[in-house]
UniProtKB/TrEMBL annotation:
Organism taxonomic ancestry: Bacteria, Bacillati, Actinomycetota, Actinomycetes, Streptosporangiales
Native organism: Planomonospora corallina
Protein name as catalogued: Uncharacterized protein
């Protein structure tokens, strides 16, 4: 979880998208057009720090 958050936060692709360096894997390629780095960061942050 920590590593995932760090990787997503430090990637240099657009916040509205994702790349194979951060979010995209062969396993989730079905969802690639819905994967956005910004939204993922929000989810990861809310999981780490529940309101
Ligand atoms: Zn990326």
């Amino acid at each position: 979880m920590e590593a995932a958050a760090r990787r997503v936060a430090s990637c240099d692709c657009g916040q509205e998208t994702s790349c194979y360096g951060c979010l995209r894997t062969r396993r989730n390629e079905y969802h690639h057009d819905q994967l956005s780095r910004g939204a993922t960061l929000e989810v990861l942050c809310s999981l780490r720090d529940p309101a």
